[in-house]
Amino acid sequence: MRQLALISPLLIPTLVGAQANGDLPREFGCIARDELSNDMHPSKLARIVRACATEQRYDDAVKVYYTYSS
To answer: Is the backbone of residue 56 left (phi > 0), alpha (psi -120 to 50) or beta?
Structure first.
């Protein structure tokens, strides 16, 4: 439950501080943290976290979230 509380703010779309990037597709699937690369856009990482939470892969969601927030 604590993990869900950490990622729940990402489940609510927000425009505060959002960057416009027309090159990114709207949705991404959940991927594990070891599949991430250092050239991924922050909005892509946020969408991956959201996808992991939707798929109930909470461990992956939290790990990608930590990467996203650092």
So the answer is: left
d(CA 17, CA 33): 24
Closest to 3 in 3D by CA, of 67, 45, 66, 62 = 62
The domain locations on the chain are 40-70
61 neighbors 7 (Cβ within 8 angstroms): yes
Say what the pLDDT of residue 19 is.
47
pTM: 0.62
Could you count the other beta carbons within 10 Å of the beta carbon of residue 20? Answer: 6
pLDDT at 8 over 90: no
8 Å CB contact between 27 and 4: no
